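Translate sequence into structure tokens.
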Amino acid sequence: MNPTVILAKEVVNPYMFAQHDVLQDSRLRADRKSQIQKATALGNIYQHKVKIICQMADGQVGQLLTTIWQSDDNHVSLKGGRTIPVNAILRIEY
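Result follows.
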């Protein structure tokens, strides 16, 4: 397995990430949605950072330590207007 790439939130752009949904199982997708909602609440209430584990466009796994400020069904928004597509997120660690 390839090592995880550490990403700086300042260089994140949506084109860096996988365009397909990286989770095939509907239960895993539901868990991801719940994780994103919890991380968004933690970011807005406590400014708590989380680790986002995601798949990059080249197939590598990346991780990013950041605060999620806003989320919808398609994207999570980070400080500075940066976004990550939800379908590229493997999981979120608190």
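Note: The helical segments are 26-46.
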